[in-house]
Specification:
- The chain has 172 residues and is α+β, with helices and mostly antiparallel strands.
- It has a domain at 62-155: Arylsulfatase, C-terminal domain (2-Layer Sandwich), CATH 3.30.1120.
- The chain contains five helices and six strands; from the N terminus they run E-E-H-H-E-H-H-E-E-E-H.
- The protein has a four-stranded antiparallel beta sheet with strand order 3-4-5-6. A two-stranded antiparallel ribbon has the order 1-2.
- It is flat.
- The model is unreliable at 88-94 (pLDDT under 50).
């Protein structure tokens, strides 16, 4: 790209991506965030945050979402990679043997509405289906470390993301 007439560099977008299967010859990458080089001020951030959290149709207004990272020892991750590979684990073993075993690995718990998933790399270690609001609140407390007072659960009742009896999922 060339410089503009006033010698200002063009603005670019930067993408933060993650691959959950780095041992594969052609790992797939998923974009988590996109950052622009444009300057943002505190008010811009507050307005954008408010919009993402409150406008209908956005992920944070239509879902209960939580993420927590946790440390995993390299030797524990080795077994997880082996279990996840289609070729019997050979690619995962080679990739981890080449790496320093002392390097920290990071696992991730995610909660999206009625499902919690625990992953390390491409390996899904646990998947929990939730059937009620008390179960979801218990997971938020125990897995994600989020303090939710019993009396605060009432604020989700009647909203789009509240648990409903079978067959009434779309009503709010």
């Amino acid at each position: 790209t060339s410089l503009s007439a006033d010698s200002t560099a063009p603005l670019r977008d930067w993408h933060m991506q993650v691959s959950h299967d780095p041992a594969r010859a052609e790992p797939s990458w998923m974009t988590l965030y996109t950052f622009a080089e444009a300057e943002f001020f505190q008010r811009d951030i507050e307005v954008a945050s408010y919009a993402v959290c409150t406008l209908p149709g956005t992920v944070l207004s239509d879902s209960v979402v939580a993420t927590r990272r946790f440390a995993v020892r390299g030797e524990d991750a080795r077994g997880l990679l082996v279990a996840d590979e289609d070729d019997g684990g050979a690619a995962g073993v080679q990739a981890l043997d080449a790496a320093d075993a002392a390097l920290p690995w990071v696992g991730k718990w995610t909660l999206e509405d009625k499902r919690g998933v625990k992953r390390v790399g491409g390996a899904k270690l646990e998947e929990v289906g939730l059937a009620s609001e008390p179960e979801r609140v218990r997971m938020l407390r125990e897995v994600f470390g989020i303090s939710v007072a019993d009396e605060d659960v009432k604020w989700i009742e009647g909203t789009k993301v509240a648990f409903r009896p079978e067959g009434q999922e779309g009503a709010a």
